[in-house]
Amino acid sequence: MNDFKVHPRLAVGVLLLCLLGIAALFIHERRQRVLSPISAEMTANLEQVIIAPFSLKNADSDEVIQFLNRCLARSPQALPIQFARWPLTSRPIGFHLRRKNPMIAKPGAVEKTLTLRFEQEIKLSVLLQYVAGLLDCTFGQRGGTLYLTDGVGEFGPIIKRTYPNLTVWMGALTDHGKKTVEEALADTGIQFFEGTSAALTPNGDLVVRNLQDQIDLLEAANAQP
Fold first, then answer.
1. Sheet containing 82-85: which strands, arranged edge to edge?
2. N-term to C-term CA, the chain
3. Burial class of 216 by CB neighbour count within 10 A (0 to 12, 13 to 18, 19+)
4. Is 82:73 a contact under the CB 8 Å cutoff?
């Protein structure tokens, strides 16, 4: 009986195909966990949807999602938008919780509910702001789906900026060391999230890691890279 032999090149090819398949699956699953801030196009679409007077009482997140989808279904615009809730068991990639009071609900804990009543019409874009504020959540986007994500934060990559020779400026902001760099910048309106930071080097350079909108606020205040 002849022994079955596999050509080395064939074995290597099969192995490479398996590795490529695993890599493709990993990339696909990772993309499914990435959410982005609500785009300008999506915001413009939400502005078109007008919600008739309504009343919600003690509605949890899932009930709010159902209500929002019903509002979309009744809208004459027939926009390709839907709402969903991000599962509590994971966090979207690119979502950074605000450091102070993130208000994350733990599985099994009593969930926050929403009671809201409007006797006049309201834009869907404005309604989402009320929902986010009352439920301590954040809406993120992937394609045509808006996900209600538990916790107060922002979506986007963390960017590093270095601002040279800011010893004098930061000295005034920190009251000459009485405040930390982050406390001083927070007093000017800069927000910090998980994974973000700000520090002054011994050479007087300010090194900031933050989201793009916070970097823009900082640079508008005075600092320039």
1. 82-85, 145-150, 137-142
2. 74
3. exposed
4. no
DSSP labels for 157-196?
Answer: --EEEEE-S-HHHHHHHTTTTTS-HHHHHHHTT---BTT-
- Report whether 48 contacts 125 (CB < 8 A): no
| Chain position carrying tokens 């490529």 | 20
pLDDT digits (tens, 9 = 90+) for 35-92: 989 999 999 999 999 999 999 999 999 999 999 999 999 888 778 899 999 987 778 8
Q: Could you give the 3-state DSSP secondary structure of residue 139?
A: strand
Instruction: Give the rounded distance of the alpha carbon of 10 from its chain centre.
Output: 45
**Long-range contacts (CB closer than 8 Å, 24 or more residues apart) made by 213-217:** 213/154, 213/156, 214/190, 215/159, 215/161, 217/188, 217/189, 217/190
Which tokens in the block code for residue 52? Answer: 């008739």
Q: How, if at all, do strands 50-51 and 122-123 pair?
A: antiparallel
Single pTM value for the model: 0.73
